[in-house]
């Protein structure tokens, strides 16, 4: 098979949560460029429409689905609604996330629950729904979880503690392994991307005071850029990555290597 064909996503439908900006939009750009029809979902309809316009200007087929991933009881109906429009979901990118910074002894319980609800519970309920309704009946699927280097290591004591975020991303790392093993024989691969520090709205506060310390511990001495997740996302979403499953791939400029 020609190598270009292995990466071709024509005829595939990719659902990207938190796809209206940041890393989710970066991944959506990559999948759409290689032929996938892209569905973006996020809480804010106006941001979704702006992102969709950005992708359509590049010739991509885009649908939007406003919704709150933390409202777990709405997810099944949203998936049903989407499938009625697009027919099937071949690629699921669990990218939506929340964070909270606070010393652990002072961490509010409601903030802990918010982070867990989006980062873990929402990813579980959505993945379960997509598996049941599309991937398992069709015998093919690609699930890409956007975890974090925060799920692979502890927190630098010079930074604001983010116990809930670290815990949730650690959960997503093992969610990836367990899910991959369960469905490996059914045509479905499950992997995660673990980004280091990228300039996004979520990281703005951290970078404002901690960028120097972060760069000091990043061998490449730079933050992640606009193109840095695209290659690995395309690999994991396509037939080029068909024999890769259960892996948590750090995209961090070497941070976790030292």
TrEMBL record:
One of its GO terms (molecular function) is gluconate 5-dehydrogenase activity. SUPFAM superfamilies: NAD(P)-binding Rossmann-fold domains (SSF51735). InterPro entries: KR_dom (IPR057326), NAD(P)-bd_dom_sf (IPR036291), Sc_DH/Rdtase_CS (IPR020904), SDR_fam (IPR002347), Sec_Metab_Biosynth_SDR (IPR052178). Pfam families: adh_short (PF00106). The keyword Heme does not apply. Residues 12-196 form the Ketoreductase domain. Its EC number is 1.1.1.69. Keywords: NADP, Oxidoreductase. Belongs to the short-chain dehydrogenases/reductases (SDR) family. NCBIfam families: PRK07231.1, PRK08213.1. This is Gluconate 5-dehydrogenase. It comes from Deinococcus arcticus.
């Amino acid at each position: 098979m020609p190598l270009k064909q292995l990466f071709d996503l024509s005829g595939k439908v990719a659902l990207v949560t938190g796809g209206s900006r940041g890393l989710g939009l970066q991944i959506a750009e990559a999948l759409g460029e290689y032929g996938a029809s892209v569905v973006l979902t996020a809480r804010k309809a106006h941001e979704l429409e702006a992102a969709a316009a950005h992708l359509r200007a590049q010739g991509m087929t885009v649908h939007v689905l406003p919704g709150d991933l933390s409202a777990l009881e709405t997810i099944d109906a949203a998936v049903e609604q989407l499938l009625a429009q697009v027919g099937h979901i071949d690629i699921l990118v669990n990218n939506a996330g929340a964070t909270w910074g606070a010393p652990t002894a002072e961490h509010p319980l409601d903030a802990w629950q918010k982070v867990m609800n989006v980062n873990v519970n929402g990813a579980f309920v959505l993945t379960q729904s997509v598996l049941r309704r599309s991937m398992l009946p069709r015998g093919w699927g690609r699930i890409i979880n956007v975890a974090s280097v925060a799920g692979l290591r502890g927190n630098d004591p010079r930074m604001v503690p983010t116990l809930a975020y670290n815990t949730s991303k650690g959960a997503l790392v093992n969610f990836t392994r367990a899910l991959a093993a369960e469905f490996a024989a059914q045509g479905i691969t499950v992997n995660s991307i673990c980004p280091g520090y990228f300039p996004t709205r979520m990281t703005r506060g951290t970078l404002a005071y901690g960028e120097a310390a972060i760069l000091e511990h990043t061998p490449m001495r730079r933050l992640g850029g606009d193109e840095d997740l695209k290659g690995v996302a395309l690999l994991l979403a396509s037939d080029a990555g068909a024999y890769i499953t259960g892996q948590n791939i750090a995209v961090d400029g070497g941070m976790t290597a030292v």
